[in-house]
Amino acid sequence: MPFFSLTIGSETIHVDFDQILSLQTSVFDLHKLVLTTTTTKYEFLGKLAECEANYSQFFRVSKSTLINPENVMLTDYKRAILLYQAPTLSNTPSAKEKLLKHVLRNNNK
Questions:
Q1: Which residues have C-beta within 8 Å of that of residue 71, sequence separation ≥ 6?
Q2: Coiled coil: which residue ranges (predicted)?
Q3: Which residues are CB-contacts of 93 (< 8 A; sequence separation ≥ 6)?
């Protein structure tokens, strides 16, 4: 089972991709990323581009957000909203709509 590794201080944490909803830049500190899972959030130092390059499971929906398409349950393209398996909502830009539909369709096969 693939997992995502992150380091907070001297502690390395491994998170199963089954639990990951999204990864985005922190609103408060642009050098930090926020990993949102089905149960918690982790804030740590990192670069979104490196995470995207190292983990093919992510899909970039905007300049500041990567999602795990495996956990997207419902999409509302008119309102640009994603609903995850955990009760969490996320916005998605319409510019990525066509590609996101393709990725989600392939994940649901």
A1: 18, 20, 21, 38, 84, 85, 86
A2: none
A3: 61, 62, 80
Domain residue spans in the chain? 3-107
The pair of three-digit structure tokens given for residue 37, joined into one six-digit string: 């899972």
Q: pLDDT by residue (tens digit) across 45-92?
A: 999 999 999 999 998 988 988 988 887 766 655 655 555 555 554 556
Fold for domain 3-107?
A: OB fold (Dihydrolipoamide Acetyltransferase, E2P) (2.40.50)
- Note the pLDDT tens digit of each residue in 15-36: 999 899 889 999 889 899 999 9
